[in-house]
Structure prediction request, 401 residues.
Amino acid sequence: MAKNREAYNYPDARGYFGRFGGRFVPETLIPALDELESGYRKIRRDPAFRKEYQRLLHDFAGRPTPLYFAARMTGDLGRARIYIKREDLAHTGAHKINNALGQVLLARRLGKTRIIAETGAGQHGVAVATAAAFLGLACEVYMGEEDIRRQHLNVVRMERLGAKVVPVNSGSRTLKDAINEAIRDWVTNVDHTHYLLGSVVGPHPYPMIVRDFQSMIGAEVKKEFSSRGNRFPDYLIACVGGGSNAAGIFYPFIDYPRVRKIGVEAAGVRGISGASLCQGRPGVLHGAYTYLLQDDDGQIKEAHSIAPGLDYPGVGPELSYWKEAGLVEYHQVGDREAVTGFKYLAQVEGIIPALEPSHAVAFLLKFIKKTRKGESVVLNLSGRGDKDLGIIENQKKSSNA
Ligand SMILES: *Cc1c(COP(=O)(O)O)cnc(C)c1O
Prediction:
């Protein structure tokens, strides 16, 4: 019990969650991180900020998102009652808008006039471009050239929203390289620029800020169960890329050991995965000490998942801490199974899920046999799947060939 309380109070003053986290960054970035941290601690307690954030979440992003009882799926599978937290119904189609709005408001409070961000698949970039447009701030999004090619529609969306998409042609020309470029930009322009990180990763205070700006997901679940007079769910299930949607639903329940929390990583295909917690070991990437996919020499390995948002070789330090403290368990699901989850939810519930949470759906389809009638599961449906229909179509073609 004491252990769980402690979990609730992390990060400590130095930005650590147990032995994970910290600030492994060039000296030049420390003042910027300090400014961000003190600014954030101030606004976190400020009722006017909370009120404005709440209003934006409600009026602009469409919160609270529904907690939907999946009657057909529950009937079909015949065990625990299944509830779906509908983050796919938030504006721009995923949970990422929660964090983007919070940080853009924070940036404005800090007097910043320019927002930069990194994006892999483009979902975070779209959320940031949306929030920046809404609040009238200039916005530039770093994106690997390979991702620009693969995710063309999101590039068009960002540009329509008034953002500048900056191509990155270093390294593997994907997310990892885009993050490096964004950090470089931030070092140079920190006086007027806010770097809006998209998941619970990076140096302190980012993992804390992003977790807090996603925690309404779990708080809404709590409230919904309480107001129906039900005891809390027996299981929470979420997919894990960087870990922000999982942290958002798990954190408010972290001191409730009876609520079993399960994170689902991408096992990818043919041994190339995004499963940092299941297959990696601790090291330093993007400013934090955390579980990473690395080879025997400590070189960061290439990550892969059919879900663009799970294609990252690291994970948030708090999720690493939760693993070692035994507060959250992690499993992995491969590309092929994720597609099965995708198709199942579309056909049984009439919801086309993003490929990221399709991993969680696929896990639940197996795990459900271990649950009992009278129990309940909440699945965090982090986003909608329109963006992935092209991938599914290609998959169909290549498996027919
Ligand atoms: C980006 C994304 C993810 C992965 O990011 P987390 O930080 O792990 O939540 C998951 N689902 C969707 C729909 C996403 O867009």
Q: What stands out?
A: The longest strand covers residues 260-268.
